[in-house]
Amino acid sequence: MAGYLIARSWTFRLAPLFMHKPLLAGVLIWTCISCGDEQPDNAHLLAKVGAVEITAADLRTFEANLKTATMRLQHRDNLQTLIDREVLLLAANERGLQRDEEVLAELAKRETKALADAMLRRNVAAKVAVTEDDVEKAYARSGWGEKVTTMEIFVPNREKARQVQALLAQGEDFAEVGRQFAADLYYGVHTGEMRQVAYSPFDGPRDLAQAVFALPVGGVTEPLPLHGGFVIAKVAERRRAELVEIEDGIREALGDEQQKQLRESYLRHLKWDLETVFDAEGMDIVVNVLQGPVRYADLDETQRQRPVYAFEGLQMDVAEVLEAVRPSGRLWPEATADAVNEKLSESHFPTRIMAHDARRKGLDKTEAFARSHELALGNLMLMKLREQILAEVPAPTEDELRAFYEEHKHRFRSPPHAQLEEILLETPSEARQIAAQIAAGAEWSELARAHSQRRNAEDGLLYVSESQAPFLGEAWMNAVMNAELHQLQGPLQTRGGYSIFRVIERYPEIYHGLELERVRNAVERDVRERAEREFFNSYLRDLRQKYVEQIDVYEEHLRYLDDELVQN
Length: 568
What we know:
Elements: E1 4-7, E2 14-16, E3 30-31, E4 45-49, E5 52-55, H1 56-64, H2 69-72, H3 75-94, H4 101-123, H5 132-140, E6 146-155, H6 158-169, H7 174-181, E7 195-199, H8 206-213, E8 224-226, E9 229-240, H9 243-273, E10 277-278, H10 280-291, H11 301-304, E11 307-311, E12 314-317, H12 318-325, H13 337-346, H14 348-360, H15 367-390, H16 398-407, E13 413-414, E14 417-425, H17 428-439, H18 444-451, E15 461-465, H19 469-472, H20 474-482, E16 489-494, E17 497-507, E18 510-511, H21 517-546, E19 551-554, H22 564-567
Helix pairs in contact: 3-15, 4-14, 4-15, 5-9, 6-7, 10-12, 16-21
């Protein structure tokens, strides 16, 4: 399994850190004891790295956070991951990272966030209760029992979004505009492939789901921000969803709403209980710095430490508020006291006062918190160690970039597409009749306007790409991509009825090269990540050799993992 050595949060959830399965075996000395049937007294002990013991309980805690049952059953590999974590911590301690200023500053932030989260769980999450009756009532409300299916064009920037908007406003076919502009959501390169997405009212992204639910079938949204670019969505279908399809989503949405109300109530009480005081003069300094008339560098220490909020002996001063609302240091010309307060209320201010509430109630003095603190420090030390090690990785060469691109060029491909005339009929007999009229010389566009069920094809003219096969039908798409040009085809059964068509032109697939900035950036990122993974794994192998005398593994004790006495 992949190694999980660094937690991205305060809690003991370990995140991937560049290890591949072949590295998990060997290097260490495996100590086998107690080969008989009798369980040894120290069966709970699985390994020691220096003075640190790794127990069955540690392994169980770790495995409980893994995604799949298969991963949770790979006890030896999972134990190796925990061993490697301790080996890396030995190296981090040798570098003095436990005293690193950046590590300690981040640790303080995470401590505050963890304490605030604990109070949210106690005062908010623990009080949420969504009943079956609540779910059924929500389902009965207008809109909650619906699903909307969309076709979506993703573009990487605002200028492309404006171009898409302009063409659609001129009456251009949505599918054809998608073929011209749709880009890959991850790489941002042109593919001509639209996405089909099904939304429930409570799905995310919230702005996008709300926009499509406000439209009728055929309606098109404004460009909406998504993944660093913009998406333009067309409503293709609205349908009634059965309760069984969406009850989990409804329950989650109702729970979120309850949490929001409980959180607001808790925070109102907390502000009153802490006797929170607002300092208007401190806020004026903040606003003047944000708007630009006053430079932060020109503030003296007294002004920087001027309180904006004070509560129960603590305060949020000018420096802290400025960092919270504008960490980049950029100007905010439209800043006002109300706007600053709104920004603070999103996260920073609630987190600060909830963490303070946790401390006055002694949560930071508990054994569980001390253990979490220790783990969080270790996680941050490992992140810093990784940063230092990977700084030594050389930049990829042009030859490496080109070799990687050639190996993976299919990822930067726009699929083949075709232009065709098509008429979609409800029954095969209707299709045969229309086909006979066309063969006799009837005008295709007139017949299409009068009879076709394909409403998104003006005068029967259609542009399709292989990526649309799931929406238009695999067999039909295969026929289109292989039909002789200008020859009448069909009737062919497909989604929505029976199709007759003739292909006017076919266009081959296109590969986007390294000269395109987004392709080059994507290739550079992937090559760099591969090099970093290999470099770090090599570093870890060396560490295992370096500390081999400090590592003892009791592999035989893994056989007792399922024993209740060992688990407890």
